[in-house]
TrEMBL record:
PROSITE patterns: ABC_TM1F, ABC_TRANSPORTER_1, ABC_TRANSPORTER_2. CDD domains: ABC_6TM_CydC. It is found in: Cell membrane. Residues 19-305 form the ABC transmembrane type-1 domain. It is an enzyme of class 3 (hydrolase). It comes from Sutcliffiella rhizosphaerae. One of its GO terms (molecular function) is ATP binding. This is Multidrug export ATP-binding/permease protein. Pfam families: ABC_membrane, ABC_tran. Keywords: ATP-binding, Hydrolase, Membrane, Nucleotide-binding, Transmembrane, Transmembrane helix. Its main location: membrane. The chain crosses the membrane at residues 20-44, 50-72, 133-151, 157-179, 246-267.
Length: 572
């Protein structure tokens, strides 16, 4: 039940609609009981040829109960569904607020298809929590207890039988089937996650699968996964029908028992036979309210597992990354970063990506981080961006502990270009406008000119993920965004790796001009043009092996010198 605590909290925020749903549900249930009780009594009484006014009164009661039942049932459906839609809306917003600070770290733990299945499928599954799990048992118990109290006036023995029927159909039978339901629900949910993941990967990797002629194999795998999911759904559906059938059988058995026992008591003179038809009709009707309990285990287990999968994504991460943020970074100021004995290991990996790193990026300085592929350069930059959390060590920003600064505050005051940047379906203008608010067209055109994209107009289309742009155009568009943002911290990860040397040199001239007094950190695999850097940090296997200016490293004739000599021999 602990998985459903947060959902229950959101349910109770709609206490007005919850209370109205329960009241109207009780009214509908008890009106149905009154309607059929009156019908049964009218049948028995009519056989004795009573006065016409007696029949008139009974018929009027039937109409009253019928109207009350219809009105109450409509009101119950209206308020319960309104509450459900509001609860789902609040749940989506609540989950988004928790998961949003975790992006993109969260993709280190979960595949995108699995996340999609959780965000869409699991949230949708929770619509049944209020409608099928939360308030129906409350209505069932109130209606049954009221009915049993009424029956006890005529016969305590029959009231006891009715109570036994309540316990069997409302609690015992659903509890028995709940044990089998857990495994079925887990299989269905995991099957849906696998299917969502495989579909996502097929779409993302379609071009590569086609090129390497592996599309048919991937389609076969997808068909198998889809088939397994359908089988699990069919098994769950059969189990649900069986549960409902057993519950219905028990209710009919109880009604037959009441009829037989009532007839026996009538013969023995312990019960007024005039009311026998009324009690049988009541037993047939009141168990209609127990029908939802037949599928209660399905919906309860479905809701519990859905809530658990959602909480699994965010329950530990939010506290770790968000709760300690207390300081606000100054505006229009170049920041300084300091790391001492910082280490980092990706989740699930045994070897460290960074080990005991000691580096400083002073305010207003220009730093290049170089080294072979896989040396930890980008990971170090991601730590600066708070996209990863260090395992240990001391990490400060402007002499504040790094955990005391929120990620969003840091991002809002940084110009960032990563190796992979997202491009939205729309226009060049719309993709540049995300840099900051109220950007004028003239500023956008000027930024495009700085990165040598003058051939683009602001109305040119950009396809999803920039599919109609070349690698170099994507990088230059990302740099144009950074130019437009105009903050005083620059964090750049291979920003021109797909750009030709002439264009790259022109872009860097503009970059150093704009970042003259700013803090700049550049991750690069190229060693040309680093002479203007204040310091160069050389990394290998997650360790800082050298640090200094260009001239100092060349004079030392160490690792950087060897890399430089190799580059000269290859490109000259």
């Amino acid at each position: 039940m602990k998985e459903l605590r947060h959902v229950t909290f959101l349910v109770m925020k709609e206490r007005k609609d919850v209370l109205l749903s329960i009241i109207l549900g009780f009214s509908a249930g008890i009106s149905a009981v009154g309607l059929f009780a009156s019908s049964g009594y009218l049948i028995s009484k009519g056989a004795l040829v009573p006065p016409i006014y007696t029949l008139t009164v009974m018929i009027a009661l039937l109409k009253l109960f019928g109207f009350a039942r219809a009105f109450s049932r409509y009101g119950e459906r209206y308020f319960s569904h309104r509450a459900t839609f509001t609860i789902l809306s609040n749940l989506r917003v609540s989950f988004y607020k928790k998961i949003e600070p975790l992006a993109p770290r969260i993709f280190q733990k979960y595949r995108s298809g699995d996340l999609l299945a959780r965000i869409v499928g699991d949230v949708e599954s929770l619509q049944n929590f209020f409608l099928r799990v939360f308030y129906p048992p409350v209505v069932l118990v109130i209606v049954f207890l009221s009915t049993i109290l009424f029956i006890s006036y005529f016969s305590v023995i029959l009231a006891f039988v009715m109570l036994l029927g309540l316990l069997l159909t409302g609690f015992v039978v659903p509890a028995i089937f709940a044990l089998d339901q857990r495994k079925l629900q887990r299989n269905v949910r995991e099957g849906r996650a696998r299917l969502s993941t495989e579909v996502t990967e097929l779409f993302y990797g379609f071009r590569d699968l086609k090129i390497y002629q592996q599309l048919e194999e991937k389609e076969k795998l997808l068909t198998e996964v889809a088939g397994d999911y359908v089988v699990e759904q069919e098994t769950e559906g059969k189990q649900e029908i069986f549960n409902h059938s057993v519950n219905t059988f028990v209710t009919l058995l109880v009604s037959w028992l009441i009829l037989a026992l009532g007839a026996y008591l009538t013969v023995q003179g312990q019960f007024e036979g005039l009311f026998l038809a009324m009690l049988v009709m009541i037993s047939l009707t009141v168990f209609e309210n127990a029908a939802p309990m037949a599928v209660f285990p399905n919906h309860y287990e479905d809701s519990r597992r859905a809530a658990g999968r959602l909480e699994e994504v965010v329950e530990n991460e939010v506290v770790e990354y968000v709760s300690e943020a207390t300081n606000v970074l100054p505006d229009n100021e170049a920041l300084s970063f300091h790391m001492k004995d910082v280490s980092f290991t990706f989740p699930g990996e045994s070897s460290s990506t960074l080990a005991n790193v000691n580096v400083s990026f002073e305010s207003g300085t220009k730093t290049a981080i170089v080294g072979p592929s896989g040396s930890g350069k980008s990971t170090l930059l991601y730590l600066l961006l708070k996209l990863h959390q260090p395992d240990n060590g001391t990490f400060t920003l402007n002499n504040w502990n790094y955990s005391s600064v929120s990620s969003e505050d840091l991002w809002s005051k940084s110009n960032v270009v990563l190796q992979e940047n997202h491009y939205f379906y729309g226009t060049i203008r719309e993709n540049l406008a995300i840099a900051k608010e109220d950007i004028k067209d003239e500023e956008m055109l000027e930024a495009l000119g700085m990165v040598k994209l003058n051939h683009f107009s602001l109305e040119d289309r950009v396809l999803e993920k920039g599919e109609n742009l070349s690698g170099g155009e994507k990088q230059r568009l990302a740099i144009a965004r950074a130019f437009l943002k105009g903050q005083h911290v620059w964090l750049l990860d291979e920003p021109t790796s797909s750009v030709d040397a002439v264009t790259e040199n022109a872009i860097f001239e503009k970059l150093f001009e704009k970042a003259k007094d700013d803090t700049l950190v550049l991750v690069s695999h190229r060693l040309t043009g680093l002479e203007r850097m204040d310091q160069i940090i050389v990394m290998e296997n997650g360790n800082v092996v050298e640090a200094g200016t260009f001239d100092e490293l060349m004079k030392a004739k160490g690792y950087f010198y060897e890399m430089k000599e190799i580059e000269k021999s290859v490109f000259m």
